[in-house]
Amino acid sequence: MRKLIVACVLLLVTSIGVQASEEAASLRFVTQDFPPFSYAENGKAAGPFKDIADAVCKEAGLECPVVVLPWGRAQDLVRKGGADVLFPIGWNKDRGEWLRPSSAVVRTEYGFFANAGSGYTYAAEEDLMGRKIGVYGPSNTSHLLHTLWKRLKWFTIDMRPDSESGFFKLGKRRVDLVFSNVDVGKAIIRQNGIQDVVYAGTYQSVEYVFGFTLVDSKQEYINKFLVAFETLKKRGVVSKVLLGYGLHPAP
């Protein structure tokens, strides 16, 4: 009986050790519904960032489950240690306080969309005077627009908790402009059949990255991911994935 008890204890300890090892050798990813960069398809995460994460994790020998959540919840989960990696994100100073970035994954841009019938074209900040501008937020996009507003204060911001609302309002002329990532905006217009909305001009280019937790116990595996990521960039794997979605790889 004693031998049986000892054997059971050893089996339990071994099982716990294996489970802990498996958990430690994994990175838990969270993202949002943010086409064309990330989205849910048949109840599962999909899109170029998911494809890249899968390829990198395979190269690094890591298990990397990915879950699509509302953006605020996704960020909160990483902040509280319930997840390890957030994507896609535009980098800013505030995020450096709680995240570690990868090198750039994709290059895109922020700009303004307008109602086609308005004849509006964005060329300079003065063109925003007196405008009501829709934006999705809280997000890096809204952060950038608010930073611009604090400097100029000659337009108003209509912030909404989803990317689509501003474009629907723009189509009905309930806002004058929408400030958005150009690829996201075009995807929303196409997927929702929104009429009479056009891209009116670029404000700033941006590169999206993976953002990693600063939790010490995960840094070994984050480093493995980053090494594998750079390897696949050099092999052209990352570029091939992005170009397959009609996106522009970062240099």
Description:
- The protein is α/β, with parallel strands linked by helices and 251 residues long.
- The protein contains 8 helices and 12 strands.
- It has helices at 2-24, 48-60, 71-79, 140-152, 164-171, 182-192, 219-235, 237-244, and strands at 29-31, 39-41, 44-46, 66-68, 85-90, 100-101, 106-115, 132-136, 156-160, 177-181, 197-212, 248-249.
- The strands form 2 sheets. Strands 1, 4, 5, 6, 7, 8, 9, 10, 11 and 12 form a 10-stranded mixed beta sheet that branches. The chain has a two-stranded antiparallel sheet with strand order 2-3.
- Helix 4 (140-152) links the parallel strand 8 and strand 9 (156-160).
- Helix 2 crosses helix 7 (219-235).
- The radius of gyration is 22 Å and the shape is globular.
- The chain starts with a helix and ends with a strand.
- The relative contact order is 0.19.
Task: Describe the structure using short key phrases.
disordered N terminus; 8 helices; alpha/beta; single chain; two-stranded antiparallel sheet; 251 residues; globular; 25% strand; ten-stranded mixed sheet
Task: Indicate the topology.
Elements: H1 2-24, E1 29-31, E2 39-41, E3 44-46, H2 48-60, E4 66-68, H3 71-79, E5 85-90, E6 100-101, E7 106-115, E8 132-136, H4 140-152, E9 156-160, H5 164-171, E10 177-181, H6 182-192, E11 197-212, H7 219-235, H8 237-244, E12 248-249
Parallel strand pairs: 1-4, 1-5, 8-9, 8-10
Antiparallel strand pairs: 2-3, 5-11, 6-11, 7-10, 7-11, 7-12
Helix pairs in contact: 2-7, 2-8
